[in-house]
Amino acid sequence: MDLKKAVFLDRDGTINWDENGYINNPDDFHLYPYAGKAIAELNKMDFLIFVVTNQSGVARDIYKIQDIEAIHDKMNICLKEFGAHIDEIFFSPYHKHGKITPYNVDHEDRKPGLGMFKKALKKYNFIIKNSFMIGDRYADIAFGKKAGLTTILVLTGNGEKEFFQKRNDREYKPDFVVKNLMSAAKLMQWMKDK
Ligand SMILES: [Mg+2]
Q1: Cα–Cα distances in Å, from 93 out to 10, 63, 114, 123?
Q2: 3-class DSSP assignment, residue 42
Q3: pLDDT above 70: residue 100
Q4: Which residues pair with 89 in a beta bridge?
Q5: From the CA of 187, how far away is ligand 1's center (Å)?
Q6: CA-CA distance, 192 to 186, in Å (whole number)?
Q7: Distance 2 CA to ligand 1 centre (A)
Q8: How do strand 150-154 and strand 176-178 relate by DSSP bridges?
Q9: pLDDT in the model for residue 179
Q10: How far apart are alpha carbons 180 and 186 in whole angstroms?
């Protein structure tokens, strides 16, 4: 069987609105209006889809692991309405300045660390070359670059701010900068057709 390629997606500010800080419960979770359709397009292109999300609110005692799971249940239900699905969601509850043990540590799972990438690779054994990372922060771009992925910065969420603040001093330059997740999906379709 041919190995598949993968798309790693950041969550907050990439798939869903991230304008009000930490998302504590499913009622505060809302997909961007185009996100379901964009992910369905990526499914049609036969990519494996992984979400990789830093959720340091657990370490910081803002919400619990169960809250993240409830939010992800809602995300999966919302995406299903668009015929979209995610193969696996990875999240990192860690932060070294947190107060909740055992999550108050500097952990490789926290982007730009590659812990979540390594877990996905071990379990799914995809082709790294021509796989993608899409996110709204430079931590996402650094994660993708270190992993050998093609990187796309979206300007939604924190993307616009990060782009203007860090475009000159960033260590990792994104391969592409696009308006949003739908633009990213269209770009990938275009590249596939070339
Ligand atoms: Mg984000």
Answers
A1: 14, 10, 14, 20
A2: helix
A3: yes
A4: 51
A5: 20
A6: 10
A7: 31
A8: parallel
A9: 98
A10: 10
Distance of CA 1 from the midpoint of ligand 1 (Å): 34
**145 pLDDT higher than 90:** yes
In Å, what is the CA distance from 38 to each residue of 33, 35, 55, 173, 181? Answer: 10, 5, 23, 24, 6
pLDDT in tens, 18-58: 977 789 999 999 999 999 999 999 999 999 999 999 999 99
pLDDT band at 168 (very low <50, low <70, confident <90, very high): confident
| Residue ranges of domains in the chain, CATH in brackets | 5-193 (3.40.50.1000)
How much is the pTM?
A: 0.96
Catalytic machinery residues? 10, 12
Neighbour tally for 106: CB within 10 Å: 10
* Residue 70 token pair: 């409830």
Mean pLDDT in residue range 115-124: 98
For residues 168 and 122, give the distance between their C-alpha atoms in angstroms, rounded to a whole number.
Answer: 35
CA-to-CA distance for 169 and 167, rounded, in angstroms?
Answer: 6
Whole-number percent of the chain with pLDDT over 90: 89
